[in-house]
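Re: [help] complex structure
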Amino acid sequence: MSIDKEASKEEMVLAIVSKYKEIPGPLLVVLHGIQQELGFIPPEFIPDIAEGLNLSRAEIHGVISFYHFFRSTPAGRHTIQLCRAESCQAMGSRELERHAKKSLEIDFHQTTADGQITLEPVYCLGNCACSPAIRVGDAIHAHVGAESFDAIVNELISEKVEVKN
Amino acid sequence: MANIKVYVPRDTTACSLGADSVAVSLQHYFSNNDIDCEVVRSGSRGLYWLEPLIEIETDSGRIAYGPIGPNIIDEFIAAKCWKINKEHWSYLGVVDEIPYLQKQQRVTFARVGVIDPLSLSDYENHFGFSGLKQALDMSGQEIVSQIKDSGLRGRGGAAFPTGIKWQTVLDTESDQKYVVCNADEGDSGTYSDRMLMESDPLCLIEGMTIAGIAVGADKGYIYLRDEYPLAFTVLEEAIVLARNSNFLGENILDSGKNFDLEIRLGAGAYICGEETSMLESLEGKRGEVRPKPPLPAIKGLFGKPTVINNVISLASVAAIIVNGASSYQNYGVNRSRGTLPFQLSGNIKYAGLVEIPFGVTLKDLLYEYGGGSRSGRPLRAVQVGGPLGAYLPESQWDTPLDYEAFTSIDGMLGHGGIVAFDDTVDMSAQARFSMEFCAIESCGKCTPCRIGSVRGVEVIDRIKAGENSVKNKELLLELCDTMVTGSLCAMGGLTPYPVRSALEHFAEDFESGS
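Output below.
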């Protein structure tokens, strides 16, 4: 990665910190902002966040590591959240979980070798009337079985890569 | 032809079944053919096996068709269903006359699925903001007394009387007070908060504003879980709408009273549904549970007196003010007054939202509404009240849905989620998951919860492997006792309930090799 890109990322982090630092209890808002922009919270920026919010680096690390949603490493191009909670279990999510791990050849919290898919567990998407459910981006899918899971994955993989400058 | 309104839900579950694409197809068809029909994105009625449910406005009420997924919409259009085709297989008649809906008493959910969630005029035409207008002419004490008299108890699960909580905040002197809405609906099998926020967001905003005026708070937060992206989008738009029309902000409707609110997103931690953990999270910290006392009503967010209520509690407030405390109080049984929006989930044929007064039996809900299992196999176990609620065997399904009746069988109504399992369920696996979930989601502050849950998984594995089965079952029950009596909050304190109920009522599943 070029030095320029790294520098612009740091500027972005500093801008997010300064945008929210005056609101009450800003840390989660700041972390959400950074993860939305960069896809994860690069550990090298923890000192910037700590200094900007007048907190210790340990406090920032403690918060990032407490919440399942925050990442310290990049995810794949797509993240699939698979619901493991009871309502989905009642409709076959244990089998779906086994199938997903087997077909993607990864465990939870891992990314496929080609960098396409990251698989994460989630505990309820509020779609319990049509279990099992998975979430990809902001889209929730209902009644997901092995076959429809594969179809969703294939569609994601075949999506054109957006060119970002 | 006069302008006809065609309603297509914009609700997470309806969208997960293709409602967005259905709405786009209809819009294209109407505009390409110069047909004067307007597609309105309403909320969902909560009849989820019929989603996407399309409704057509007529003089004799709204006519419903469903389920109309993306693979059927072309056929729906070709059959001219939008002009009312009674012969079509998906024709359901007048929506309000569908028995599942007709049998309900929708009080808190009166507007859900009916209105366009982001139309102020729709909202006001359905009694929206009438409660706020009335509240602005009342004293704080008068409002709090109304809520107390209604018998409303916290709908998040703990069922603490809402009015008493408000009274404590009202009586506590402070330069700053807060209203916090707990929208961290993490219990599996529950979705009523999500529906309300997506389908009638202004109702929550109105309820929070009334709470603020009642107790003297001018700032509110909605702590929303990150797993609800659509609710976030809809709520954000609704807050702007309300603010632009002076239902929120400074000098609300020229009353001289101020109240404004913002949404804060959670980050995937179940424990943040526990109120003190949620306060920590709102303050930007790890969501670790605080010891009580002090009560949040006296020392809550940023150390200030704070009303913390669930979405449904706050959404029930305006209707209580408009219709009067006694009208709400007249619903229900014993100390469980009013209505509860139950959510039928899991392996159930007619899964959906059922708002009814307390008092009917679980069996009625499972069969009269739910129609039995979705798989067609016999139902075997039902978990009521989320992942911390007991698993109930058929012998307990005659229990009336009433907070105290459920407590008496070591169960809980909680937030009204009901998850049904058929006879293929392995109850030892369910018990193991309860412990595993607690281990994953424990905040780590107290030992019984943090360590006990890990040990619980291990002991269940040993029982299943046939290692000293009798002794290990005793050990599991002792561990459960330690967690119940020694945990700081309900996470560790209630996790043993599903475990013990599985062991007690489904003992055969714990035999090795079963």
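Chain B has a mean pLDDT of 97.
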